[in-house]
Amino acid sequence: MPAKKHSWSGNTDRVDYGILLSILILAIFSIMSIYVATVHDTSPTSTPLRAVVMQLAWYAVGGIAVIIIMQFDVAQLWKIAPYAYGLGIILLVLVLFKYDRQRAIANGAKSWFAIGSFTFQPSEVMKPAFIIMLGRVVTQHNAKLEHTIRNDFILLGKMLIWTLPVLVLLKLQNDFGTMLVFLAIFSGVVLVSGISWKILAPAIIGVALIGGLAILLVTTSWGRSLLGLVGFHAYQFDRINNWLNPSQDTSNSGYQLWQSMKAIGSGRMTGRGFNVSKVYVPVRESDMIFSVIGENFGFIGGCFLILVYFMLIYQMIKVTFDTKNEFYAYVSTGVIMMILFHVFENIGMSIGLLPLTGIPLPFVSQGGSALLGNMIGIGLIMSMRYHYNSYMYSRVNHR
């Protein structure tokens, strides 16, 4: 009898309930916000009931993905990394030929498959595949070579070799926002990979200088002419104009941002209350979902949502330190950077701190492919605790 009791306890300890609780709270925010957004907006293709049911269905699919991925231990994740990456590349290539024409006309991006009414963005599931592949590359390199300046440059080159094909394909899809997410993942893994600061410091300074040059280019007429020659479009310049001066054009290109800021501001400290909507915001069920939270639940509700994200990140970091596995550390870093960048960019653009990029709010915005990609990332983190606790339990019970 005691053995059975210990076995049950050991199995339950393998599940990280802190992470699950954070996801559950975010799911509640998601369902409530999507309902409010759709119940006040008229759409010929979506009703509030359909939108909520679809989001719940995608959460169910994501939950199944988490359970499946949890079964993969570190050795199995290591083996499937190249295959997952390869499949992701194939999907990114295919979407260039089979993209949703209507969506491409609407937002300029060729990044969505469309099969009837079903749409899917392959770059979202490519994110976790890219993360485990990058983790494998760094771990494999560090196991064979010591950290010298020469070897660190080799490591950086290896990481770029696996990153550049993704960035090129996203550029061809004209999906700049998603490119930024992959760059954030890449930067996070580089920072923890052990590469010398003699390389990182000049690289960071170089990025800062490039950023300063980019600001100069987008704020001058001659600079915009140069950017136009390399593929920048008028709508991208409009987004920058609206970011720099939100009140400049509140009825045309700046309408979405201005309405989002109005909605969030109207919520004040405690919000107007659930299902009260006085300010219309375009696409508020997905990219601008934070405007719904700000209007309904106010500053306090927005801060609580951000706190839930911090708790989720804290739980992820805690799992990483507990497992003490190098490959897992790089994988968790990639997942954390993916989620952090999404949260920072989405909320930042909703309140006017950052330009609009079309990046959804993780686990809250409407969208099946984004939710599935994030849930796969959660599955990777959950698998760390699941197999580490299983390993520790087996050691204790076989002494």
Describe this entry's structure for a reader.
The protein is mainly α. The chain has 15 helices and two strands. Helix 4 packs across helix 6 and helix 6 (122-144) packs antiparallel against helix 14 (326-350).
Précis, in short:
The protein is an all-alpha fold and 399 residues long.
Shape: globular
Helix and strand composition category: mainly alpha
The end-to-end distance, rounded to whole angstroms, is 19 Å
Assembly classification: single chain
Strand content range: under 5%
Radius of gyration: 22 Å
Give the strand order of the largest sheet, numbering strands 1, 2, ... along the chain.
1-2
Protein name: FtsW/RodA/SpoVE family cell cycle protein
Keywords: Cell shape, Membrane, Transmembrane, Transmembrane helix
Membrane topology: Multi-pass membrane protein
Transmembrane segments: 17-39, 51-74, 80-97, 153-170, 176-192, 199-222, 297-315, 327-344, 364-382
Write the layout of secondary structure elements.
Blueprint (H helix, E strand, L loop, with lengths): L1 H11 L4 H23 L8 H23 L3 H21 L6 H7 L5 E3 L2 E3 L1 H23 L4 H24 L3 H17 L4 H22 L2 H9 L4 H11 L10 H12 L22 H35 L2 H25 L17 H30 L2
Antiparallel strand pairs: 1-2
Helix pairs in contact: 2-3, 2-13, 3-15, 4-6, 6-7, 6-8, 6-14, 6-15, 7-8, 8-14, 12-13, 13-14, 13-15, 14-15
Properties at a glance:
399 residues, mainly alpha, 15 helices
